């Protein structure tokens, strides 16, 4: 990838010294342990990421445990810190199950108040040794639990799950799956060990090879309830809100990278005897990329505030951020390809990696259309 | 002076000269003598060396007490003229102009010409040196508040033999000078917010020249940097989103099905406005010194939002969009204390100018690309040629 160091600093990031330190620490780790060559290695590696590098991120910086409560070996911070890390990971396309394990699973488990689940899962997540995921029934529709195709059956004190969930994020590597399942006219969350009898995992080829999915079949798989019965909708909403904002941070990070790389290219690529960045058609497209990225960050910052403060406008701010950042990342990544010309559509160039990621990110945790619908309802339209 | 001391000084002023019972001119003069008109100006130049934010606290206290507010009443003189005078004026000019502005003199801007819009340095109004000062001939356009101002910030060409940026000189023109003729400029909305100013053999004393002869371009830049700042602060006011939401609600009550066809556009418009307001609030928090290129993001964003917003308003109006309230200029323009009543159709027409006035969207994008992203400037044909050899029109 083109070196981003030549680019003048964007006027966007103004934050406390602690956050700045965290940002630069994560950024250094990302560029050291996951340069583009490593990102590419994992496009078709079986796991999609390197467990040793993932563990280093936890043991050396504590990224996975930033928002995990201190009694479970985390740092006990909020989404503010988690979002800074997510942005830097997204900037470098760091391979690893951050969205599934840290943003979704750790949040869901921590909010469940289930002492057993927290003690069993959170220290492992914070330590980088345990990979978890949430079997969301329909990504495009956000985090609605009621579409779950899984049913839970109770025999004495033991629970089993039956049903198939298509495209489970990081299903191919998860050690533990958190599954919303229907029983007794309610929907609850259950945890299932991926290695248990009756769990079938079928990895699928994904357009965005930096995010992996698997179809997961439960054929009477043994399961343990997480939290109180009937709380799946609430827990998924809590985890979904945090994860959607974390994903928005990933989108801002990716957009920032594509903006920097493309500006650098426009400064150094010559046609007609001039740098192409001196042509207004190119200049204006880049200015629009800058505007999109800046506005996306404003929406992201506001959503982080709303979640951390548990503000009354939380759901509105979260949906606004997910909708705006999704469209911004997609537009910026698409423009990056266009402005690179022929090289932009080659396998060799990094633009397609970001474009595919932007395409997947746009759909995950609710499309812009889904979130616009939520906004319309919130506005009473 | 620190902010608390400034507040104390403001309270002392208000106590000594209660606005309710003090003559307006006397109050303003006392405010100026106390350094409270521009607390962020240096001491000795009408200020107290405080920061910009402190001036806002002064205005808040003045407003509470019912004192005059020059930032509103003589916006251009206060926010654009005065900083230019501080940066470029002689000691005599600073005392004379700043006191005049501080006690209520209004200024307008005489920069743009029919042949010099985005390319401001191409202005053609000539100022020729004479024994008793400068003789000026030319035509200026897009001047707001020309008929209610006493002085104009005038940019004129003094040496056509130099390249265009280098042959300009800046004057503070007394508008009562013979040869100054002001005509209203009617816009597509029917109203006349702006004026054309014709200058015919207007004689300006050299004492009203601001900055060096042939060095006016940099002086004008001081003025314009502060104009961007003004637009930036204005942009957070209520706008097309609120008007559209009202029209949507009205249509929803009348015909739910018809309204539902606009639901998606309505949300998208709200979302754009919402994010722009968040951005503007964040940019205001980040800006410590003068206005930066961030204001260009807001400028482009709000201009495009206004246009898209009033387009939606027009669609929501249905057949009523065919009609218009009035094209009678007097019914629309310059009513005291406010603008014309909300007519979405008039605002729709007015919004076409939003991406042109104060720097076109195209120029704003150039600024963002060059100053923030470091892209190279367009190769130029006019940079080193004498102005007299440039192709114009």
UniProtKB/TrEMBL annotation, chain A:
CDD domains noted in UniProt: ACAD (cd00567)
Gene3D superfamilies: Acyl-CoA dehydrogenase/oxidase, N-terminal domain, Butyryl-CoA Dehydrogenase, subunit A, domain 2, Butyryl-CoA Dehydrogenase, subunit A, domain 3
Cofactor: FAD
Family as reported in the entry's similarity comment: Belongs to the acyl-CoA dehydrogenase family.
Name of this chain's protein: Acyl-CoA dehydrogenase family protein
Domain Acyl-CoA dehydrogenase/oxidase C-terminal: 244-379
Keyword entries, A-Z: FAD, Flavoprotein, Oxidoreductase
Organism annotation: Pseudonocardia ailaonensis
Domain called Acyl-CoA dehydrogenase/oxidase N-terminal: residue spans: 16-128
Superkingdom of the organism of origin: Bacteria
Pfam families according to UniProt: Acyl-CoA_dh_1, Acyl-CoA_dh_N
From TrEMBL, chain B:
Keyword annotations: FAD, Flavoprotein, Oxidoreductase
Cofactor: FAD
One Pfam family hit: Acyl-CoA_dh_N
Domain of life: Bacteria
Segments forming domain Acyl-CoA dehydrogenase/oxidase C-terminal: 215-373
InterPro entries to which the protein is assigned, alphabetical: Acyl-CoA_Oxase/DH_mid-dom, Acyl-CoA_Oxase/DH_mid-dom_sf, AcylCo_DH-like_C, AcylCo_DH/oxidase_C, AcylCoA_DH/ox_N, AcylCoA_DH/ox_N_sf, AcylCoA_DH/oxidase_NM_dom_sf, Mycobact_Acyl-CoA_DH
Gene3D superfamilies linked to this entry: Acyl-CoA dehydrogenase/oxidase, N-terminal domain, Butyryl-CoA Dehydrogenase, subunit A, domain 2, Butyryl-CoA Dehydrogenase, subunit A, domain 3
Ranges where the Acyl-CoA oxidase/dehydrogenase middle domain occurs: 108-201
Keyword Hydrolase applies: no
Annotated coiled-coil segments of the chain: none
Domain Acyl-CoA dehydrogenase/oxidase N-terminal: residue ranges: 25-105
Family the entry assigns: Belongs to the acyl-CoA dehydrogenase family.
Protein name from the UniProt record: Acyl-CoA dehydrogenase family protein
Organism: Pseudonocardia ailaonensis
């Amino acid at each position: 990838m083109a070196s981003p160091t030549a680019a003048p600093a964007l006027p966007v990031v103004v934050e406390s010294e602690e956050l700045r330190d965290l940002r630069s620490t994560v950024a250094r780790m990302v560029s050291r342990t996951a340069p583009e060559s490593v990102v590419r290695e994992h496009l078709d590696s079986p796991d999609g990421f390197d467990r040793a590098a993932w563990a280093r991120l936890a043991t050396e910086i504590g990224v996975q445990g930033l928002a995990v409560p201190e009694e479970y070996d985390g740092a006990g911070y909020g989404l503010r810190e988690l979002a800074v890390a997510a942005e830097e990971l997204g900037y470098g396309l760091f391979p690893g199950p951050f969205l599934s394990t840290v943003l979704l699973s750790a949040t869901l488990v921590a909010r469940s108040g289930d002492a057993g689940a927290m003690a069993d899962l959170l220290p492992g997540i914070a330590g980088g040794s345990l990979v978890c995921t949430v079997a969301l029934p329909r990504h495009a529709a956000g985090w609605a639990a009621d579409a779950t195709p899984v049913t839970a059956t109770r025999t004495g004190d033991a629970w089993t799950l039956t049903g198939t969930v298509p495209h489970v994020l990081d299903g191919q590597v998860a050690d533990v799956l958190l599954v919303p399942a229907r029983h007794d006219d309610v929907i609850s969350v259950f945890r299932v060990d991926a290695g248990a009898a009756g769990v079938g995992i079928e990895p699928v080829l994904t357009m965005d090879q930096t995010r992996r999915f698997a179809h997961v079949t439960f054929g009477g798989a043994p399961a343990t309830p997480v939290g109180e019965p009937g709380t799946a909708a609430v827990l998924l909403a809590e985890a979904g809100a945090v994860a959607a904002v974390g994903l928005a941070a990933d989108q801002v990070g990716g957009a920032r990278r594509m903006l920097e790389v493309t500006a650098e290219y426009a400064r150094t690529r010559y046609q007609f005897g001039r740098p192409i960045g001196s042509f207004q058609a190119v200049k204006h497209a880049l200015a629009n990329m800058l505007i999109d990225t800046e506005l996306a960050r404003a929406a992201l910052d506001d959503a982080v505030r709303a979640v951390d403060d548990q503000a009354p406008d939380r759901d509105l701010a979260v949906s606004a951020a997910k909708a705006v950042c999704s469209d911004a990342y997609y537009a910026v990544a698409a423009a990056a390809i266009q402005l690179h010309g022929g090289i932009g559509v080659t396998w060799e160039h990094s633009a397609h990696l970001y474009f595919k990621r932007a395409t997947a990110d746009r759909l995950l945790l609710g499309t812009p259309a889904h979130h616009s619908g939520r906004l319309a309802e919130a506005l009473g339209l | 002076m620190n902010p608390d001391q400034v507040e104390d000084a403001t309270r002392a002023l208000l106590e000594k000269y209660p606005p309710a019972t003090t003559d307006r001119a006397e109050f303003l003069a006392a405010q100026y003598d106390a350094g409270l008109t521009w607390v962020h100006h240096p001491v000795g130049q009408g200020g107290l060396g405080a920061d910009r934010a402190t001036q806002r606290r002064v205005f808040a206290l003045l407003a509470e007490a019912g004192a005059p507010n020059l930032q509103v009443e003589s916006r251009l003189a206060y926010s654009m003229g005065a900083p230019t005078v501080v940066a470029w004026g002689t000691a005599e000019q600073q005392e004379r102009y700043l006191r005049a502005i501080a006690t209520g003199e209004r200024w307008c801007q005489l920069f743009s010409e029919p042949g010099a819009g985005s390319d401001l340095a191409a202005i053609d109004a000539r100022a020729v040196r004479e024994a008793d000062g400068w003789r000026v001939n030319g035509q200026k356009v897009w001047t707001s508040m020309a008929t209610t101002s006493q002085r104009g910030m005038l940019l004129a060409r003094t040496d056509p033999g130099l390249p265009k940026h280098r042959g300009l000189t800046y004057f503070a023109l007394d508008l009562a000078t013979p040869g100054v003729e002001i005509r209203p400029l009617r816009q597509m909305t029917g109203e006349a917010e702006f004026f054309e100013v014709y200058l015919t053999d207007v004689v300006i004393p050299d004492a009203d020249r601001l900055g060096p002869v042939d060095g006016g371009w940099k002086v004008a830049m001081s003025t314009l940097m502060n104009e961007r700042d003004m637009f930036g602060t204005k942009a957070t006011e209520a706008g097309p989103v609120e008007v559209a939401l009202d029209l949507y609600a009205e249509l929803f009550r009348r015909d739910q099905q018809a309204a539902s066809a606009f639901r998606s556009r309505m949300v998208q418009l709200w979302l754009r406005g919402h994010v722009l307001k968040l951005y503007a609030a964040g940019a205001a928090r980040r800006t410590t010194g003068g206005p930066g290129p961030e204001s260009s993001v807001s400028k482009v964003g709000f201009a495009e939002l206004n246009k898209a917003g009033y387009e939606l308003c027009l669609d929501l109006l249905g057949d009523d969009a065919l009609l218009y309230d009035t094209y009678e200029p007097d019914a629309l323009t310059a009513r005291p204390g406010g603008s014309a009543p909300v007519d979405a159709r008039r605002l729709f027409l007015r919004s076409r100018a939003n991406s042109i006035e104060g720097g076109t969207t195209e120029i704003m994008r150039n600024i963002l690309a060059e100053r923030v992203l470091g892209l190279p400037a367009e190769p130029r044909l006019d940079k080193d040629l004498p102005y007299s050899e440039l192709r114009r029109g």
